[in-house]
Amino acid sequence: MTEDRRRAPLSSELAQRVVDLIAPTISHNINVMDEHGTIIACMEPGRVGSLHRGAQRVIAERRSVLVTVPEPGTSDRPGANEPLMIDGELRGVVGVTGNPREVEDLARVVALTVQLLIAQEHEQDAVSRRHTEARDLVAALSSGTTRPDDARARLAAAGLQPPWSLALWAAGDPRPGGGVAPPPTAESAAARVNGDGARRAAVLHGALWIIGHDRAPAADSPGLPAASRHTRTPATDDVDALMAYAEESRALCRYAGLIPRIERAEPWSREIAVSVAHLPRRTLTRMSARTASLSGAQRRTVSAMASAGSMREAADAVFVHRNTLLQRVDRIRSATGLDIRRPDHLTTVHMCLYAEAALGISHIPPG
Q1: Region 277-292: what's the mean pLDDT?
Q2: Pairing outcome for strands 39-42 and 30-33
Q3: What pairing do the DSSP bridges indicate for beta strands 229-232 and 199-204?
Q4: Rounded to whole angstroms, how far apart are CA atoms 99 and 67?
């Protein structure tokens, strides 16, 4: 609990909501007074704002007070008044109107009920604040316009100390046009994360984001479907690097196909995916046309060549003889005009396959 919350005055709006909720269940009027004895919630609107002498005695003496004969000139009514304790502090008074001896026990029950309801509302408000804070934090980090000092201050205000990490989840099926959609139950997953305070989560740009301290959570930690898409970053002490990761992640949210699926062990290059995500859609269409005729075996060959250190390693990766691999390389050259034995041509073909994935024509090149 923060110092601000301990010092915040009891909300009259919240107190009235609680009174309106409880009052229909009993046959007596309920009053809620603040820490000064002023009535802030009541079933008789005309009494709101007036001082309650019995409540002032409760606050001064820190005990229950029965009002049998109200003082002349006051708005008090006969009844029982109980201290309202919230988080161990005397924050106000709850009064139940009626014969003091008859409503004395009822007043204790009502005071406890009011206390529990207000505490529950405070907790919900705290989670709501953390959710808003998380959304603002993700928006700031991914905007590309936030200054490092401001980003660092926001992270510190959220209780997130370096090293920081970032993880992203999206639904397995893209939106029409290839955009990212949040996984099912993403909002509830974000609420659970924000409830413990150790990390911050928000649904933004069509994805679930989680920012935390140290290593990013594993793909299955939020309990999202296995068909979801997921990427996470290494931990970093550098706020500029964290903002770069966030800006990259926002770019990836343009095309769901550029984010790997959890359920598939696909080789994936973040750098290529981010580079492709920044390209105009017409450029993606032009690039994807260049590799449209490649077979599955040829696509796997491209991926193997991109990750292997030699032709022999690439051949072993796709379980073929070196001569078979060379034949595939020649066919790829015939289809695309690019010789993937050349690093620059290999990079171009690889990016064309990522362009296909961005447009939903195919998946990320398999290994």
Answers
A1: 96
A2: antiparallel
A3: unpaired
A4: 9
